[in-house]
Structure to design on (309 residues):
DNA sequence: GCCTTCGGCAAGTATTCGGA
DNA sequence: TCCGAATACTTGCCGAAGGC
């Protein structure tokens, strides 16, 4: 198996794009809808603050999707909102791959009542999919463990049928305390958005190479950039879902999907272009795209025409 | 003169390297 | 194999520069 089926829905949640503009306008116009969401979010925030105040060294947090305006003060936000790191994005990729491998071995179990899937993994398996060579030191193990823990203490907001869900996407149940951290089996449950591929809907997933994290590590040294990792996934999605060899992204769309508003917030505008450039350079380096041309769309806005390999 | 933007700095984070 | 140091890169912040 060379490629995994990556659920499009998960990618949307990762990049804060889980609500369409139609849904966003519904939140703004439909008071009932808005109230339901606000109540859920408020409840989650209270819970997070509570947990953080009485915590065991863990930091709990929430991801707020784009377009959903909610009255949360900056002071509260700084306490509860923590953006996804590139490492966490890579963990998502690894977990999707492992869930799929478990499914192929009939070792993935769907728990209907909580709409989650259960399976078991080892740190060695996660390591391999993170692209880190086996037999590395304790420090690397701690790093992966830390990201896993950070992911499970992070709540995401999304939609399941007519229901709002505010919940972690990945949860680890029963961490092994054995000395051999590498081959201890970790009991994991993931939300249903991890296994959308099980349904027969067309284009609810796209193909992503199993060794994508390894390739990304090879071409980019040092601390990884979350925007670059997200763009690469979106480009794989575009390639999978399109019959033509080129695809166009407007500048503002890239700012959205790459979550570049963090630079706008700090007025670091040059970093936006730099991040986009680095994203394309990375995609070229992993042989995903051939070249990118800059052009203008019908609204005279900057757009990028991407030629796939 | 005020506001926006830039660029540099320090702190934080991930990775590699090399000595014990 | 482990651990700290060095390296590479990101991020947040703040003051200086520039435009209106």
């Amino acid at each position: 198996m060379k490629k995994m089926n990556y659920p499009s829905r998960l990618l949307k949640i990762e990049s804060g794009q889980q609500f369409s503009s139609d849904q966003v306008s519904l939140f703004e116009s439909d008071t009932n809808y808005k109230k339901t969401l606000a109540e859920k979010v408020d409840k989650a925030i209270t819970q997070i603050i509570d947990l953080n105040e009485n915590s065991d060294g863990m930091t709990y947090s929430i991801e707020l999707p784009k377009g959903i305006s909610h009255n949360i003060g900056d002071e509260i936000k700084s306490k509860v909102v923590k953006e996804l790191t590139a490492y966490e994005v890579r963990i998502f990729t690894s977990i999707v791959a492992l869930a799929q491998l478990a499914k192929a071995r009939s070792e993935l179990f769907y728990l209907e009542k909580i709409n989650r899937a259960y399976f078991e993994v080892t740190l060695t398996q996660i390591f391999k999919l993170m692209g880190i060579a086996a037999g590395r030191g304790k420090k690397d193990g701690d790093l992966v463990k830390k990201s896993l823990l950070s992911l499970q203490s992070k709540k995401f907001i999304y939609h399941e049928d007519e229901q709002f869900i505010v919940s972690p996407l990945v949860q680890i149940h029963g961490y092994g305390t054995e000395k051999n951290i590498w081959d201890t089996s970790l009991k994991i449950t993931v939300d249903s958005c991890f296994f959308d591929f099980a349904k027969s809907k067309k284009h609810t997933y796209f193909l992503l190479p199993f060794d994508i994290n390894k390739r990304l590590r090879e071409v980019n040294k040092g601390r990884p950039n979350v925007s670059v990792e997200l763009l690469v996934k979106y480009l794989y999605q575009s390639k999978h879902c399109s019959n033509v060899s080129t695809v166009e992204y407007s500048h503002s769309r890239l700012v959205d999907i790459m979550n570049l508003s963090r630079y706008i917030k700090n007025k670091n505008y040059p970093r936006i272009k730099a991040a986009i450039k680095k994203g394309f350079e990375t995609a070229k380096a992993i042989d995903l795209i051939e070249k990118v041309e800059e052009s203008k769309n019908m609204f005279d806005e900057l757009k990028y025409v991407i030629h796939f390999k």
About this structure: The mean pLDDT of chain A is 79. Chain A has two domains: 3-224, 225-309.
